[in-house]
Design brief:
The structure is a homotetramer of 215-residue chains. Chain A has helices at residues 2-10, 27-44, 51-58, 62-66, 72-82, 96-114, 117-128, 130-157, 166-185, 191-206. With 215 residues, the first copy, chain A, is mainly α. The longest helix of chain A has 28 residues, at 130-157. The structure holds a DNA duplex (31 and 31 nucleotides).
Chain lengths: 215, 215, 215, 215
DNA sequence: AAATAACCGAGACGGTACGTCAAGTCTTGAG
DNA sequence: CTCAAGACTTGACGTACCGTCTCGGTTATTT
């Protein structure tokens, strides 16, 4: 699903599928390019990332990159798209609180590891190419949806009662709070904070409402 | 307060305050530079913003910009820092729900108006200059704190009962959810969504807990 | 001969001759660059010659110039090196006096035509790059040697007696006097002066000594 | 005499002599500026000489230099003009050959010491400001004339016979040959060369002609 | 087997912008 | 009016990358 979506934006340079004469593209190169891009994204950040450096690092000609990606933003988008996605942790055996905690911890680690380089790409590319921005947003979105389902699935199966629409609520709020903490607040996204989020935000929201407040 | 904080990072090029020899800097130029920067940020977005264009638009030599700002990121940071901040709306006469609604609406407009250009600056500059990133985060933070106080101040004065730590909770959650919607979800941040946020997220969190939840 | 010598100094940016990978350089550009350089040298003089103007005039990117020449001095040196040298006039049918006169006249014209722009290059570049200065000196030297041989060759063939070492003596003295007149004295290098040089300096020196001077 | 000549070109910025109100110029500064200029001319050569560096080295404001000199060329011209001129050696007690030899040796040393920096100034300034070029030429000329008179004066007094117009001839030829050797030939201007010049060029020219050649 | 066609590396090319340096002018406060 | 300091505009510097192009050469499929 997300595959095709991303291909819509990054695949502008796909060869016509019917005309397969001539030497086929070397898949080795795609791998090398993606790896080099991710590497340099971490080393230098988005706007100090040069395509020439990616080409050099990947041992590849610039042509080979431009044949595959329209520009820097598309290159980065594709690299992120195809990176090892890292499945969210299995929470089937955990209680609700632990399931939430493990999940937001995993989320925070993902964001910290990726360093915001990919988000920089999203922002920088947004104005130049709205389609690219859309692709980036989808990439971000897919993991969050899957994550929400899995985090709350176990609890639901075990019959824990949840507020109606809990899955959507979780998908709206949890990533928002964690992303905001990592990127904008400048404060550490440590266990203390995550416990605060779980106990003071998520649990109150997701648990079924008690009887209407007396007053 | 935020002034000094920002000066720490963007003021690397400040002249030694004790050494007042020589022609003083012309404050007119700062204004022109900031205005031109904001303009072009809106017109072209962060990564298509060139310092040469800013200089031309401001009617100023490039040197005059470089004398004040180390690079593009610092220039943008300063421009945003010194822009007219736009006070959050007065909510003293409103009930809690309306106060929250008005406030998140104002927040969404602010973000939309600024187009994410300033956030692009934050991301792009993060790796190159962590101090700059810190400054940007502070800029983002200051309004949010003030906003939270004001949004909930009126309600508290009228004796509406709030959960303990409601102000902090609001400051943590509301901007996170709205920012996330605007920047990452790709979905419209319209009234329907904002009402959803207020009714399903903020109000449940901020209202005082009813009797202890049934164990 | 002079080709290789000049390439040693101006060719610092030559690509390795064995490595013929990649798109080859376009010789058209060299020609355009040299022509534009010579043009602007005449129009503006050496130190008002800007590389950007050369690029514009040649219809070429700045990079294309810097790929070939380290800096302004090298650019000018190369342009002069490759310019149409202008052969000294044929003096085979003339007597000695006329041969000398025609030759120094040609020399004076050469220097006047080149405006000292090239000599300015030599001086300006000397300190920055001694190798460049050496190349310039060679360029200056080659024509003078050829000229001396030709100017006196006809006379020698016709059996006119010359002092021993006359060719070397001529090459030492004639260019020196003419160059000095044109560049340093500020006085016109007209026919009267050139006749003076021929009659009062060159002929006395080059004619064979009469009987040993009275002790 | 040469003072006024130089003042014509470099003294454009002289204060009106009648209006001597206000603080008088500090002569100390002129000295410091000239010294710094000469220093830096030797260290960096003409075209790498910056007025800002001169100001810094002289411990003087840029204004103070521009109040006195129109531009770089004028600054350098003035510095050379006012430098300790170094009188040509006394040759009264020497024979003709030794007098000539000592004089051309002194000339060669002068030129070598000044490194061509000053000649670079002459060339560079020629196109921009013909008046400056004229001044530079005069500076060059005056020493040569004085030198010629002195070199041949002793011999004449002792009754050595000289060719008619010997002084002018010497002034024309000797500096030309030496300057040309130092600046253009790239070969050393050593004693061997200077003896060659004296024995093979100057003496034959300056000694009175023997009787007309027999043939 | 030969022809065809796309791939690939390398790197030249015209550009745009970078961040720096210096030129020459202007503006302050102090003397 | 002079001086030191330094801000200012202007313009060129030499560098880095952009995205395009042209080479020689490679690797498949199609004739």
């Amino acid at each position: 699903m997300s595959r095709e979506a991303a291909d819509v934006s990054s695949g502008i340079r796909e060869p016509a599928p019917t005309d397969i004469r001539g030497r086929p593209r070397d898949a080795t190169r795609d791998t090398a390019i993606n790896a080099a891009t991710i590497d340099l994204l971490h080393e230098r950040g988005y706007d100090h990332l040069s395509i020439e450096a990616v080409a050099a690092r990947a041992g590849v000609g610039k042509t080979t990159i431009y044949r595959r990606h329209r520009d820097k933003a598309a290159l980065v988008a594709a690299a992120i798209e195809h990176r090892a996605a890292g499945a969210p942790p299995d929470t089937a055996s955990l209680g609700l609180r632990d399931a939430l905690l493990v999940t937001v911890q995993w989320l925070a680690e993902q964001l910290t590891a990726q360093d915001g380089g990919m988000l920089g790409a999203a922002f920088a590319g947004m104005r130049s190419d709205p389609a690219l921005a859309a692709a980036m947003q989808q990439v971000l979105h897919r993991d969050q949806a899957a994550m929400a389902r899995q985090a709350l699935g176990g609890a639901a199966e075990r019959g824990e009662s949840l507020a109606p629409g809990a899955v959507e609520l979780f998908a709206d709020v949890a990533p928002a709070v964690v992303v905001h903490r990592v990127l904008f607040s400048g404060q550490p996204c440590d266990t203390a904070f995550l416990e605060h989020v779980v106990d003071d935000v998520l649990l109150p929201l997701l648990r079924p409402p008690t009887t209407t407040p007396p007053l």
